[in-house]
């Protein structure tokens, strides 16, 4: 789930052949509506069409196979979610949403056969309501609507056209906060449940009159109530909050309640299936839990966890999953291809206590070995105080368990905070280097501890290095593992990994080094480094600066794939380490600020022959924005205009053949043998005139006498395109030969 899951989730249960029940879960995710199977946890369909954030999803009361969705783009769309087909779009151009004043309006949907209709009839129901969807609820089949905001409950009756408002004091006698947070209406009884900031739940009755209303109070939550929901028959009331506990209240027995704890993050939304057999909870950590009515967890749908990102974005060499901070104290392994979380690794191995101001352990650094056999993590507590607690942990991959297991824990590996670490790519030894604020870098080696019964692999410190008392910031190994580069503020030191001898130092103008990386493959002789606004490249054979680039406004996040160096700032720049000229640039990468980026290897490499786009052949570039949304640099940047033109024609030809409408007489074949073609392909390139001069003559020789032929019009269009490209780009005649021969290929 590339977008953060929204609060709106709906169940639907289908009866197939009167024997098998299939339950689907529909949820709003950004500008999409996703349909999940509750039995397999797989995404069955993605309903695409909205251009703004989807704000609500509701089943069609007259057809259980259809669903309505509303969006901030001002449209209401009707879908067949079984087949994933858009049925109708209701456009409301007159709706104006103010960020300060929200209104509840009644919109009449006209019943017309057109697929896109403008809905004009609307009337205001309530003004100045909360923007939180959980603050408004419908009661008794649409007889009334209840809305809460601040310390006021508003109830509007549609038939009577009357509005009743009930207010609470700011605090009660014990000083508790009475502000409303959410509301739910009983499906069959005149009862309204409201949640409050102090954790209390109030059940309101007799609210159809101003003076004789009553309410009773229930209390279990220690913090604000996040959401409320009645079951289908109204026998139970479900509540949730930051405690991550689903509480089931018995409406007939006031003091009886059941609990389902440890569900994940804070509960933000609850819904119930139409038959009342399944519950669903949506959490702030982008997770949906599917629960049986007996309070047994049935399935989990986990998206990309939103939170603080302390580690870099990493790719697991084994699963090719994105690895980053997840739940507090965890690392999440997220599949970018399948758009779901594979699993979460508990690093801290302590129960997280959701309490503001409480200092708890967090995963701050992580690194994988080349083959993915080893994982190194650093956890810290007390970052804002002088009492820093940190641990360096080494994890080994267990093939049987298909997960990482803790191998070694090193308490206080450094005297200060660890800033960076990396594994050696050498296959001869397993080596880890860490740098810290204690002005030292340490080398850790894997060894075997001989025991009387078994041999256990463990880690130990092999070397401690420093440079003139300066603080190290970054480190990296060369591609063969023979050299280690460690940056000490503005100075880069090169060390031999065999003897740990300082070989040389590289300096650059003032500014601490942020990132270091050796070139790969044919560019392995280069070392690249970045500061806040500059990019530097050193040639290790001459120990000199190959080039400095000082025109970047701000470098947000660098990434290094294969032999290329990629920088992300407001635009995207792609470089070869050997050349200071950008290989590729893209101005509008995204609307927000780029936080981090990472290259993910492809399952099947592309075969782009254009030099500017070869950096996308074996990997994809993902970047993370401030909204915690992973975005992908589109593969279409590697597509040439000729590919688009040919591809469009081939698609039209396939559609024409599949439709069966075209006739054989209309398919006029181009001439298979042409004197002009043979002369052009057999004439040496150095004696041919300019390609721009030959283009129009060549295409004219291919034209067919039938002026109505689509094939002839395509050649004319392509001839103009080729002539413009040859003239503008200065292509040689031999290049145009390849283009022309492509036109005449049998696959065309």
From TrEMBL:
Gene3D superfamilies registered for this protein in UniProt: YVTN repeat-like/Quinoprotein amine dehydrogenase (2.130.10.10)
GO annotation, cellular component aspect: small-subunit processome
One Gene Ontology term from the biological process aspect of the record: rRNA processing
Location in the cell: Nucleus, Nucleolus
Sections of the chain in a coiled coil: none
Lyase is among the record's keywords: no
Keywords of this entry: Nucleus, Repeat, Ribosome biogenesis, rRNA processing, Transcription, WD repeat
All residue ranges annotated as the WD repeat-containing protein 75 second beta-propeller domain in the record: 313-628
InterPro entries referenced in this protein's UniProt entry, alphabetically: Beta-prop_WDR75_2nd (IPR057644), WD40/YVTN_repeat-like_dom_sf (IPR015943), WD40_repeat_dom_sf (IPR036322), WD40_rpt (IPR001680), WDR75 (IPR053826)
Sequence ranges of the WD repeats: 47-89, 173-204, 411-444
Pfam families in the cross-refs: Beta-prop_WDR75_1st (PF23869), Beta-prop_WDR75_2nd (PF23769)
Keyword Membrane: no
GO molecular function per UniProt: RNA binding
Name this protein carries in UniProt: WD repeat-containing protein 75 second beta-propeller domain-containing protein
Gene transcribed to yield this protein: WDR75
């Amino acid at each position: 789930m590339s977008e953060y899951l929204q609060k709106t989730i709906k169940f639907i249960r289908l009866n197939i052949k009167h024997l098998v029940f299939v339950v689907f879960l529909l949820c709003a995710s950004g500008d999409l509506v996703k349909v999940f199977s509750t039995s397999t946890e797989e995404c069955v369909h993605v309903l695409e069409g909205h251009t703004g954030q989807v704000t609500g999803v509701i089943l069609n009361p007259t057809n259980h196979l259809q669903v309505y969705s509303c969006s901030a783009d001002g449209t209401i769309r009707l879908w067949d979610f079984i087949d994933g087909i858009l049925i109708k779009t209701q456009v409301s151009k007159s709706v104006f949403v103010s960020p300060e004043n929200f209104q509840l309006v009644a919109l009449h949907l006209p019943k017309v056969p057109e697929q896109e209709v403008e809905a004009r009839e609307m009337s205001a129901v309530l003004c100045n309501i909360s923007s939180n969807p959980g603050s408004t609820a419908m009661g008794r089949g649409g007889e009334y609507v209840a809305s809460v905001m601040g310390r006021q409950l508003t109830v509007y009756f549609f038939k009577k056209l009357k509005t009743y408002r009930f207010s609470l004091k700011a605090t009660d006698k014990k000083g508790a906060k009475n502000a409303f947070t959410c509301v739910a209406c009983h499906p069959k009884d005149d009862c309204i449940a409201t949640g409050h900031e102090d954790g209390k739940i109030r059940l309101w009755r007799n609210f159809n009159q101003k003076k004789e209303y009553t309410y009773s109070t229930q209390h279990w939550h220690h913090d604000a109530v996040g959401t409320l929901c009645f079951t289908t028959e109204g026998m139970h009331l479900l509540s949730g909050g930051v405690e991550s506990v689903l509480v089931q209240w018995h409406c007939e027995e006031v003091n009886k309640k059941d609990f389902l704890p440890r569900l994940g993050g804070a509960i933000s939304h609850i819904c119930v299936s139409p038959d009342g057999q399944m519950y669903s909870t949506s959490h702030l950590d982008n997770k949906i839990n599917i629960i049986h009515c007996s309070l047994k967890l049935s399935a989990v749908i986990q998206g990309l966890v939103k939170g603080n990102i302390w580690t870099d974005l990493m790719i697991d060499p084994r699963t090719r999953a994105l690895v980053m901070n997840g739940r507090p104290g965890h690392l999440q392994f997220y599949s970018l291809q399948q758009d779901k979380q594979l699993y979460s690794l508990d690093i801290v191995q302590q129960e997280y206590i959701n309490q503001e101001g409480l200092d708890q352990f967090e995963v701050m650094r992580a690194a994988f070995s080349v083959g993915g056999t080893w994982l190194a993590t650093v956890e810290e507590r007390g970052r804002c105080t002088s009492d820093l607690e940190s641990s360096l942990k080494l994890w080994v991959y267990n093939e049987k368990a298909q997960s990482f297991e803790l191998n070694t824990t090193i308490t206080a590996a450094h005297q200060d905070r660890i800033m960076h670490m990396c594994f050696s790519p050498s296959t001869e030894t397993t080596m880890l280097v860490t740098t810290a604020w204690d002005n030292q870098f340490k080398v850790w080696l894997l060894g075997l501890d001989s025991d009387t019964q078994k041999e256990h692999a463990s880690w130990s410190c092999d070397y401690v290095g420093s440079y003139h008392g300066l603080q190290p910031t970054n480190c990296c190994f060369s591609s063969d593992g023979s050299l280690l580069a460690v940056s000490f503020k503005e100075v880069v030191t090169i060390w031999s990994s065999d003897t740990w001898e300082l070989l040389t130092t590289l300096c650059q103008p003032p500014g601490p080094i942020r990132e270091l990386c050796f070139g790969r493959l044919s560019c392995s002789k280069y070392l690249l480094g970045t500061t806040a606004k500059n990019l530097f490249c050193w040639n290790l054979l001459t120990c000199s600066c190959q080039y400095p680039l000082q025109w970047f406004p701000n470098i947000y996040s660098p990434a290094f794939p294969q032999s290329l160096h990629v920088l992300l700032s407001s635009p995207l720049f792609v470089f070869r380490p050997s050349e200071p000229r950008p290989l590729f640039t893209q101005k509008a990468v995204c609307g927000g600020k780029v936080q981090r980026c990472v290259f993910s290897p492809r399952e099947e490499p592309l075969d782009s022959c254009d030099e500017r786009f070869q950096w996308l052949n074996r990997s994809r570039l993902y970047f993370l924005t401030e909204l915690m949304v992973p975005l992908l640099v589109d593969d279409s940047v590697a597509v040439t205009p000729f590919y688009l033109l040919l591809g469009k024609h081939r698609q039209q030809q396939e559609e024409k053949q599949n439709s069966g409408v075209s006739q054989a007489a209309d398919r006029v074949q181009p001439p298979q043998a042409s004197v002009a073609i043979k002369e052009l392909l057999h004439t040496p390139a150095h004696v041919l005139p300019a390609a721009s001069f030959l283009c129009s003559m060549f295409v004219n020789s291919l034209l067919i006498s039938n002026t109505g032929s689509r094939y002839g019009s395509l050649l004319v269009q392509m001839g103009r395109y080729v002539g413009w490209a040859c003239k503008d780009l200065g292509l040689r005649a031999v290049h145009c030969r390849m283009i022309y021969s492509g036109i005449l290929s049998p696959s065309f």
